Amino acid sequence: MKKIAKKIITSILRREASAVLRKYKPKIVAVIGSVGKTSTKDAIYSVFSQEFFVRKSEKSFNSDIGIPLTVLGCGNGWNDPVIWLQNIFSGLRLLVQKQKYPEWLILEIGVDRPGDMKSAAGWIKPDILVVTRFADVPVHVENFSSPEALIAEKSLMITALKKDGVLVLNADDEKVLALKSKWNGKIKTYGFNEKADIRGSHLSIMYGEDDIERKFPTGTILRLNVGDTSVPARIFGTLGKTSGYGAMATAAASLSAGINLVKISEGLSLIVPPPGRMRLITGIKRSLILDDSYNASPVAMKSALETLKEVATYGRKFAVLGDMLELGKYSTDEHKKAGALAKDSCDVLVTVGVRARNIAEGALDNGMDENNIYQFESSREAGKYLEKLIGDGDIVLVKGSQGSGTNKIRMEQAVEEIMAEPEKAGELLVRQGEEWKVK
What we know:
Blueprint: H1 2-24, E1 27-32, H2 37-48, E2 54-56, H3 66-72, H4 81-96, E3 104-108, H5 116-121, E4 128-131, H6 147-154, E5 166-170, H7 174-177, E6 186-191, E7 198-207, E8 217-226, E9 229-236, H8 241-256, H9 261-268, E10 279-283, E11 287-292, H10 298-310, E12 317-322, H11 331-343, E13 348-352, H12 357-365, E14 373-376, H13 379-389, E15 395-399, H14 412-418, H15 425-428, H16 434-437
Parallel strand pairs: 1-3, 1-4, 2-3, 4-5, 5-6, 6-7, 11-15, 12-13, 12-15, 13-14
Antiparallel strand pairs: 7-8, 8-9, 10-11
Helix pairs in contact: 1-3, 1-4, 2-8, 2-9, 8-9, 10-11, 11-12, 13-14
């Protein structure tokens, strides 16, 4: 019964949202890819909102229900039928009355199953389409015949791009760059590649300056180069190459919308990192948490571990890694690969979940001391044990898939156990609403 009700509500909201787009005619930036969609969407919003009246997808509203909710400016009703009715009436009011509506919508569009992107492309017509990065083994691949089939599904949004629209491609990803052949219109590329239209350089980690001997990282800095013009871009509160790519993609989209590089640089410095995406959180005992607990895929896990390896600290490095879900036949090998990377990235490895046992095995196979490996069934249990292990100057990376039911990983629960101010969990961590508490 719930499934039928959901289909009916989704259909109504999508029809309303489609009609709203036709009535108000906002310009649209759509963000697709396997890695970095939410961070890139938030970065684009940070810059665009300095110049335009803008609305973005909240959190990770990127599904068949999340996208219409964003267009209508409504929240998720979860299991409350009253809220869903209110959402439907809100859509009707937008259609019946003339209301102030955003000039730009920044939409994150995801794919879980075959047909998802085809459905979205049927009613969303972007002015700018940003493609972040594809993965060799992307999340949700178990629902498709192959990684290539999943990429083909995601790429269908190109067919919806307006004739005078701009396709923004990651020049460092061959699979993304190959999409050039699917579009005859304007294309902008970004990346560290010398041939990229918006080229990043000098990517590095920023550190605090109060105590040189005990400095912690504070964010990421790089330079954005367009022709002979170069500006610095500082992204505070988050680490990793993904944030650099988000800045470059934002520059490409913003330039396409007529925003100059100086304004882009200023807007990027105002980004508030989304929860659970390599966000810096103060931990107990003067430690620092790299909270990447929103989700996990092999390519994102690799990126996070590479960042942990690179960051400097006066303490130890911990990698707290949970199961990566929806990998199908690739699961065992990809978890073992993550373990091999962890061996070279951290001093202490903590795993959470059944699949993550293969991370521990991969680390052991590659020479990590078994005395530095701890395995747990739940993230909460791992977090409580971590309280005993971590100390002054330690940096703790926390990452894993979301999951539900028997596959529930929820690595943010480990973060909550070791953050210095757990009373701020609702503000800083992912999945803190009451609806998540009961799942």
